[in-house]
From TrEMBL:
Top-level taxonomy: Eukaryota, Metazoa, Chordata, Craniata, Vertebrata
Name of the protein this chain belongs to: LMBR1 domain-containing protein 2
Residues annotated as transmembrane: 6-21, 33-52, 103-126, 146-165, 177-201, 378-396, 425-446, 466-489, 523-542
InterPro entries: GPCR-associated_LMBR1 (IPR051584), LMBR1-like_membr_prot (IPR006876)
Biased segments, Basic and acidic residues type: 598-617, 635-644
GO cellular component: membrane
Length: 669
């Protein structure tokens, strides 16, 4: 099993990152480089979280071997027995051979740092650029990132000059590397505590509120009112941008040098606007520089950027509106079915997506009723209590993990108890659950936050390239300090435990933080205590109240604005529900008409065809029988008919001859 666990987790984490990226990104429409860079950033961050417990168990086993080698021992088969205490030092099932983990962590860490500080910021500017060529986009990206990179280079250069001038400092390359890592981790830890303080309270509270059907329905109405405003704004913005595109398209003709740029812009427009502009465009007119003033290439680049943004925003609001409608209809169905005597879940509307037969076989209407109306609220309450317990343990450990005698951090107590018995499965499970819960609190906040319309992770393939790349940057900057914080909570970091023991492979690549004692002994220890203040502020919704005072409508039960938006959203949902009901009633009537009269019409049509065939055969028989008698007269009649058809002339159209008044038309006849 040596190295097998590492290989399995590498494969599993890759498909997990691919699944999440497929949910938020769009593989068909977005650039491949954006997809690959985001996938690599997410994959490396998730990989660190999943592999770190294996590093902890391997380190504990290596410490056991060092203790055995430094004390008299007896060898017995596959394990070593300590002479004084008769303890057994088993090799863990997920043991990773020496030398693999340090190389693995170096590759993962430095690749993620290269992504977050150099490549992803450059790709962000490249993705948002409105240039029409690769060279133009690269130039725009370099100009936008010049200030970003220049600031860091200026700070680093000033620090190097200070070190070179000051004779008290004799730093080597390894120490400079450690200082760079410490600076990056300090920035990440500052943001980590902010996100962690929000997630530790909001995740248990959201699951507890998920058991309240009335609360979820009211919040859905509130979201509907806000989303309708955003949707109308997006449609209006798109109309304005399309009007500018139309004017530019009409002014720049087919033989203008910038016509290729206009065609590129038109390809990014929705199909209905492309058809409308194509009908109104006259490409047979030549352009004349002396008569008209044409837009410059710079203005076309700006317009191209606006078109990409407006189309993406319009598409996202349309999809989110449909998803929100389905959610509102389903919550209303749950509220109606709670009082059902038959205990079978009845949907108001049929699902628009094709149903899976296997799922519908097991998930029957009866099972759905018991789950939605009885079991699910209790399940969410129990889950909320468990998550709240984890949050309390995390907050306590964050405030006490610096204490080594006695050990107050509960996570450190759990790991040390398991370390005494060398129960590696328990150690790995405890480490995994701890770091997984911390990651959920931090990463879920990254998925929830929204910075106006510049950063927003929207599911169902509606996230733009800029937001995907920005999320990759955040993950790469948050994951290393998150792992160091986890190792500090469990006292696996020698800087916290103050023990001369073998460090983990992950800690070894970070270097000794003793180079910067004020960071190792001050900021890393006392700054995480601020999570208590942030949890209290989140519990009392201080941030939500501040945003509401600033004019950003937030869902608050005691606000008059919230009540008005709930009533507005309820009316919008009722209107959409009536519209869909009318559509389904019309489809049902057409289906019933086809079922009732379709067969009759087919039989009548077949009967008519059969009768015509009999009549035609009978007439053919009679014609053949009396052909000699009527040949002359029939020939003369046919000649007269042909002459009349040849003499007929088409009438000219006269608009004056058409009269809309039926009375005058009758009198004219």
């Amino acid at each position: 099993m040596s190295g097998a666990a590492l290989g399995l987790e590498i494969v599993f984490v890759f498909f997990l990152a691919l699944f999440l990226l497929h949910r938020y990104g769009d593989f068909k429409k977005q650039h491949r480089l954006v997809i690959i860079a985001t996938l690599l950033a997410w994959y490396l961050c998730f990989l660190i979280v999943f592999i770190l417990p294996l590093d902890v168990s391997t380190t504990i086993y290596n410490r056991c071997k060092l203790a055995v080698n430094s004390s008299p021992a007896e060898s017995n088969g596959s394990y070593v027995t300590l002479a004084p205490s008769k303890q057994k030092c088993f090799k863990p099932w997920s043991y990773i051979p020496n030398g693999i983990m340090p190389i693995f962590w170096r590759v993962v860490y430095w690749t993620s740092q290269f992504l977050t500080w150099i490549l992803l910021p450059f790709m962000q500017s490249y993705a948002r650029s409105g240039g029409f060529s690769i060279t133009g986009k690269i130039k725009t990206a370099l100009i936008e990132n010049a200030i970003y990179y220049g600031t860091y280079l200026l700070i680093f250069g000033a620090f190097l000059i200070y070190v070179a001038v000051n004779p008290n400092f004799h730093l080597q390359w390894n120490q400079l590397q450690t200082i760079g890592i410490a600076a990056a981790n300090t920035w990440g830890l500052f943001l980590l505590v902010l996100l962690l303080g929000y997630g530790l309270v909001e995740i248990p509270r959201s699951h507890w509120n998920g058991a309240k059907r009335g609360y979820l329905l009211m919040k859905t109405y509130f979201k509907a009112a806000k989303l309708m405003t955003e949707k109308a704004d997006a449609e209006e913005n798109l109309e304005d941008i399309m009007e500018e595109v139309r004017k530019v398209s009409e002014s720049i003709k087919y033989n203008h040098p910038l016509r290729k740029c206009v065609d590129t812009i038109l390809k990014k427009c929705p199909t209905e606007y492309q058809e409308r502009m194509g009908r109104n465009m006259d490409d047979y007119e030549d352009f004349d520089e002396r008569q008209n003033s044409y837009p410059s290439e710079k203005s076309l680049v700006k317009l191209h950027k606006q078109v990409i943004y407006s189309v993406q925003r319009h598409r996202r609001t349309q999809v989110q509106w449909q998803i929100l409608l389905e959610q509102a209809f389903y919550l209303e169905d749950v509220a109606k079915n709670e009082t059902s005597a038959t205990r079978q879940f009845v949907h108001t509307f049929h699902s628009q997506e094709p149903e899976n037969k296997i799922i519908r076989y097991f998930y029957t209407p009866t099972v759905e009723w018991y789950w939605e109306c009885l079991l699910r609220p209790w399940f969410y309450r129990v889950l909320a209590v468990v998550l709240a317990t984890f949050s309390v343990i995390v907050v306590w450990s964050e405030c006490t993990f610096f204490s080594t005698k006695p050990v107050l951090s509960l996570f450190a107590v759990f790991i040390q108890l398991a370390e005494k018995t060398y129960n590696y499965i328990y150690i790995e499970m405890a480490c995994f659950l701890t770091i997984f819960f911390l990651s959920i609190c931090v990463y879920s906040t990254v998925f929830r936050i929204r910075v106006f319309n510049y950063y927003y992770l929207a599911s169902h393939h509606q996230t733009d390239a800029y937001s995907l790349l920005f999320s990759g940057m955040l993950f790469c900057r948050l994951t290393p300090p998150l792992c160091l914080n986890f190792l500090g909570l469990t006292h696996m970091d020698a800087t916290i435990s103050h023990k001369n023991t073998q460090p983990t492979a992950y800690t070894s690549i970070m270097g000794s933080m003793r180079v910067l004692s004020f960071i190792a002994d001050g900021f890393y220890i006392y700054y995480p205590m601020l999570v208590v203040i942030l949890c209290i502020a989140t519990y009392f919704s201080l941030g939500t109240r501040c945003l509401n005072l600033l004019g950003f409508q937030q869902f608050m039960g005691d606000s008059e604005m919230t009540s008005d938006l709930i009533d507005e959203g309820k009316e919008l949902i009722r209107r959409e529900k009536r519209k869909r009901q009318r559509q389904e009633e019309g489809e049902n009537r057409r289906r019933e008409w086809k079922e009732r009269y379709g067969n009759r019409d087919d039989s009548t049509r077949n009967r008519v065809v059969h009768t015509d065939q009999k009549e035609s055969s009978f007439s053919d028989t009679n014609t053949n029988r009396s052909l000699s008698k009527y040949t002359r007269s029939n020939g003369r009649t046919e000649r007269d008919r042909i002459e009349l058809l040849q003499d007929a002339e088409p009438l000219d159209f006269n608009a004056d001859s058409i009269n809309d008044d039926p009375l005058e038309a009758d009198s004219g006849r």
